[in-house]
TrEMBL record:
<keyword id="KW-0153">Cholesterol metabolism</keyword>
<feature type="transmembrane region" description="Helical">
    <location>
        <begin position="265"/>
        <end position="288"/>
    </location>
</feature>
<feature type="transmembrane region" description="Helical">
    <location>
        <begin position="329"/>
        <end position="347"/>
    </location>
</feature>
<dbReference type="GO" id="GO:0006695">
    <property type="term" value="P:cholesterol biosynthetic process"/>
</dbReference>
<keyword id="KW-0256">Endoplasmic reticulum</keyword>
<keyword id="KW-0560">Oxidoreductase</keyword>
<feature type="transmembrane region" description="Helical">
    <location>
        <begin position="300"/>
        <end position="323"/>
    </location>
</feature>
<dbReference type="GO" id="GO:0050613">
    <property type="term" value="F:Delta14-sterol reductase activity"/>
</dbReference>
<feature type="transmembrane region" description="Helical">
    <location>
        <begin position="173"/>
        <end position="193"/>
    </location>
</feature>
<protein>
    <recommendedName>
        <fullName>7-dehydrocholesterol reductase</fullName>
        <ecNumber>1.3.1.21</ecNumber>
        <ecNumber>1.3.1.70</ecNumber>
    </recommendedName>
</protein>
<dbReference type="Pfam" id="PF01222">
    <property type="entry name" value="ERG4_ERG24"/>
</dbReference>
<comment type="function">
    <text>Oxidoreductase that catalyzes the last step of the cholesterol synthesis pathway, which transforms cholesta-5,7-dien-3beta-ol (7-dehydrocholesterol,7-DHC) into cholesterol by reducing the C7-C8 double bond of its sterol core. Can also metabolize cholesta-5,7,24-trien-3beta-ol (7-dehydrodemosterol, 7-DHD) to desmosterol, which is then metabolized by the Delta(24)-sterol reductase (DHCR24) to cholesterol.</text>
</comment>
<keyword id="KW-0753">Steroid metabolism</keyword>
<feature type="transmembrane region" description="Helical">
    <location>
        <begin position="233"/>
        <end position="253"/>
    </location>
</feature>
<dbReference type="GO" id="GO:0033963">
    <property type="term" value="F:cholesterol-5,6-oxide hydrolase activity"/>
</dbReference>
<keyword id="KW-0472">Membrane</keyword>
<keyword id="KW-1133">Transmembrane helix</keyword>
């Protein structure tokens, strides 16, 4: 499973020391026309997609058809819509700079203490998975601590300190969008330059020879500054996901300000999404074994996506409810709550089954039975052969990615499939034969 040295890599002193072979698994080495077309489409249109959704809420009360119809009928021009769009402000820039700096401080300066007094929580220094070059990185897991400190300060301000209004995020929502875009593009560009000139580990870099693919999908596997500041872990988890629940709280505060009450639908959005965010941080050590950390390189896809796509599109439900305060009937509210909890149950139990199987090396019971598994072998770029097992019991016996519960994750599912096939080869073919469905049993 070794690949020849790629001549498209830059001729830097770091890259010239790369061994003559590297692992094939992980991000792609070569770019086909379909992948390139997808990359160009996202680079060109993803920022406009985010802008369109936010603009539609700001100018058209969240109607997605109204601006299109106005443009088609000639009632407005694009320049008219743009002229009504709030621009970058000094206040928003100060808020965003303070926010990111605060999260960097919590990430770098405060080692985790939560694992010392929270039973079952795994924090502190933890090891990641083996990279394609055979490296095992260490991480400071302190996301739950950062989330708790941030939200305690937010609640203390809302209740006692009054340094800023709870609606501050909503009130600066579009100016903050420009700040998030600036950071997303800046960190993505820096990561690409770093990959060429001074990579953290040259053996874990990949160059396709295509600038756009390298920029979007990333060159470095684990770009770092110093020993502990890991770009992937920080931007995947902070500042976007910590902000997620604060954004929803700010939307709820704005709904209260505008309409005099907070609807049960807004409460449901806050509660159900907070469950997901807390689950993420409670299981941050487990997150080190997921596709984001184990396979994705750090480029625009993660850098801009974590800064802009995640906080601005994943919170659209709350933004809509600011403009349309929906009060659900009790049975409907209960149904939404139960459906959300059911989805979370499948997601959490599926992930728990895989984690239990990994931690015990298969010496456990899943659904009351000894688990089935496919033994497999893969090779890292240092020539070392590694043994692993693919779980084929429990939810993982029904489908290969039953923990993916949204249309957006279908693409992630397919990427995961491609990389696993590259990593495990024939062993992956045996696994797919044992578990034939990707996402929905009997359908897909």
């Amino acid at each position: 499973m070794a690949a020849r040295f790629r001549p498209s890599a830059p001729h830097t002193s770091a890259a010239s020391s790369v061994a003559a072979s590297q692992g094939q698994w992980g991000r792609a080495w070569e770019v086909d026309w379909f992948s390139l077309a997808s990359v160009l489409f996202l680079l060109l249109f993803a920022p406009f997609i985010v802008y369109f959704f936010i603009m539609a809420c700001d100018q058209y009360a969240c109607s997605l058809t109204a601006p299109v119809l106005d443009l088609a009928a000639g009632r407005v021009r694009l320049s008219d819509i743009w002229a009504k769009t709030p621009s970058l402000t000094k206040e928003a820039a100060q808020i965003y700079a303070l926010w990111v700096s605060f999260q960097v401080l919590l990430y770098m300066a405060l080692p985790d203490v939560c694992h010392r007094f929270l039973p079952g929580y795994v924090g502190g220094v933890q090891e990641g998975a083996v990279t394609p070059a055979g490296v095992i990185n260490k991480y400071e897991i302190n996301g739950l601590q950062a989330w708790l400190i941030t939200h305690l300060l937010w609640l203390a301000n809302a209740r006692f300190l009054s340094w800023f209004p709870p609606t501050i995020i909503f009130d600066n929502w579009i100016p903050l969008l420009w700040c998030a875009n600036i950071l997303g593009y800046a960190v993505s560009t820096f990561a690409m330059i770093k990959g060429y000139l001074f990579p953290t580990n040259a053996r874990d870099c990949k160059f396709t020879g295509n600038f756009f693919y390298n920029y979007m999908m990333g060159i470095e596997f684990n770009p770092r500054i110093g020993k502990w500041f890991d770009f992937k872990l920080f931007f995947n988890g902070r500042p976007g996901i910590v902000a997620w629940t604060l954004i929803n709280l700010s939307f709820a505060a704005k709904q209260q300000e505008l309409h005099g009450h907070v609807t049960n639908s807004m409460v449901l959005v806050n509660v159900l999404q907070a469950i997901y965010v807390l689950d993420f941080f409670w299981n941050e050590a487990w997150y080190l074994k997921t596709i984001d950390i184990c396979h994705d390189h750090f480029g625009w896809y993660l850098g801009w996506g974590d800064c802009v796509w995640l906080p601005y599109l994943y919170t659209l439900q709350g933004l809509y409810l600011v403009y349309h305060p929906v009060q659900l009937a009790a049975p409907h509210a209960a149904g939404v709550l139960l459906l959300g909890l059911l989805g979370y149950y499948v997601f959490r139990v599926a992930n728990h089954q895989k984690d239990l199987f990994r931690r015990t090396d298969g010496r456990c019971l899943i659904w009351g039975r000894k688990p089935k598994a496919i033994a497999c072998v893969y090779t890292s770029a240092d020539g070392q052969r590694h043994h692993s097992k693919l779980l084929a019991s429990g939810f993982w016996g029904l489908a290969r990615h039953l923990n993916y519960m949204a249309v957006l994750l279908t693409h992630r599912c397919l990427r995961d499939e491609h990389r696993c096939a590259s990593k495990y080869g024939g062993d992956w073919a045996r696994y797919t034969a044992a578990v034939p469905y990707r996402l929905l049993p009997g359908i897909f």
